[in-house]
Amino acid sequence: RSIHEELAGVISLSEFIMGKFTFVNLLIQYGRGTKERKYLKSLLSSVIHDVINDEKKIVLETDPIRVYRAVINEEETRTGIQSTRPLDVDHNEALADQETLSRFIKHLQYLRALTDRFLYAMTDQTLKMPFGLRYIAREIFRGLKVKFPSETEDSLARVVLHMIYYRYLQPAVVAPETYDVVDSVIDPLARKNLAEVSKMLNQISVGRLFSDENSYLVPLNEYLLHASNVFLNWFYSLIDVEEAEVHFAMDEYLDHTISNKPTIYISPNEIYSTHSLIMKDLDRIAPGSEDPLRMIVLELGSAPSTASAELDQARASEIALRLENKLAIQQDPEADVKALWVKTKRYILAMLKVQPGITLLDAFLAPVTEEHEDLWSRTVFEEIELEKSRTRADGATLSDHNHSGHTLEDVRSLTFQELKARTLENVLALEKRNKLCRDDNYQGILDSLANDILQRNRRRIRRRIDMSVLTNTLANLKEKQRYLEEQETQYHNYIADSMASMQKKGSKKRFVMPFTPQWHHLRSLEREGRKPKFGSYRYSAQRLYEKGILLSMNQFSPKQFEKVSIIISCDEVGIFKFEIKFNNEKLLNNDLIEFSMEDLLDQQFSGKQSLNLEILKLNLNLLLHLIK
């Protein structure tokens, strides 16, 4: 109903697509429950594991310019020579490069194959999808059909299909570890590939072909059209579900038979805020003078105002509110009989704990002795102690346990004789209303009680299964934490070892031609006692410029580079320092420019071509080659 009411205020389909609705939040929440995560894991874990463990290590980059620049990066890093390929190109110019074109085609082929696997995985387990999600999708689709009768069913179906994918499925594709789809660490390459697959699936869910703006992706349109129709047919099967009342076996007796009443946790401040909102719009929310909500709000009056910051803070803590049917209007003429039936079953259960019989009638006719009274007192005491132990174990309040299941909360003050008399009184009242029969020794209510106990056992088993799932999830999270910590340690150790190995190679004494600038530079450092542990090298800016390493210097033209010296030193593993001199005078008043090898590698992985260091602009790939 809330879906249809929210859609009533929508003017256009585009407004719906861009809008923020309450039912959209339900789709988001569906990815966070234990059962729903289990479904997502069964749906996607296999194909995502294949992406993570792919030995081909193909980057699913679909932008020709990025592919082109990756080719340049690899060439310059491998050779140490500036590439002859022009850096600034458009998509067509990038694809004119044969190596780029070959890689790009391979990327598209791999992307199509991988997307097809994801699509098959998503559409192959329709019956396992949570009923609530399918029901919400159906109601949104029906609501849109009523609101926009001129739109075709397929166009409306694609709108809802895109919402289901974007809000529910896509988060598990791009961040599978967040939704427990996988337990392993996802490296940057696999994450990027998952993002590319997600973009493709998003395009398929919308059913929009690539246009001339993305002409380089037009070759995928034939596949996209086919996949879009497959996805659309899957959506129609997805929304083919029964009514919620049928699926959950809901009837008029449900409220009387459930053991645990719904509980919400809310702060007094939130209650007062809700109270104020209802009071403000009371004429719209409850216009009728006999409306129960209107009567309650008018009786309560205005919401309390905050007197002080301390009081406001005290009211911010949550309290538990349990749903009780105290003010309900009994429209069902049998409601009082049903309530009496439920109450009597609870009395009988308490009575039979102390004095069972062959039949219920035999139990009623049996006399009450002192032993029965003593046993009843012990039963009540044990019940109270059990609830106290549960309270200590899970932190709930005693009243929480008093309201759960078949407890003795409302008969503890009675003696066993009084309990038995009250139970018999209720049974006779039910017999008078033709709900029980003495001829079968009131077996009907015992059968009903046995069925309740059976259902409670099933719920207990369900809770035990859920607890097992949560325990396993927690164990997996802890294992994942340990794995990530080990990976982080191994990563840092690997970087440190690599840096040390590289510096060890660079620290071997090399022959330096006497009386060269490098020779004078090293002698000067030795005299001053500040020779770096892993070496120091002096280059002329002109030489670095000619090698393509130096791209530009602020306030200096290439004609002045002969007078500029750039000194690269390393006294700590993986940490490099730049010093710039003009006619042997320092150019920078600040400390030396410092950067780490790890930062350089990160920037290279991000696709950056150049590096800005104060007044220097350097070719990142060639700088890495020089340092190595």
Automatic annotation (TrEMBL):
Domain Ras-GAP: 1-206
InterPro entries noted in UniProt: RasGAP_C, RasGAP_dom, Rho_GTPase_activation_prot
An annotated Gene Ontology molecular function: calmodulin binding
SMART domains with a match to the protein in the record: RasGAP
Recorded superkingdom: Eukaryota
PANTHER family according to UniProt: CALPONIN-HOMOLOGY (CH) DOMAIN-CONTAINING PROTEIN, RAS GTPASE-ACTIVATING PROTEIN WITH IQ MOTIF
Name of the protein in its database record: Ras-GAP domain-containing protein
Biological source species: Austropuccinia psidii MF-1
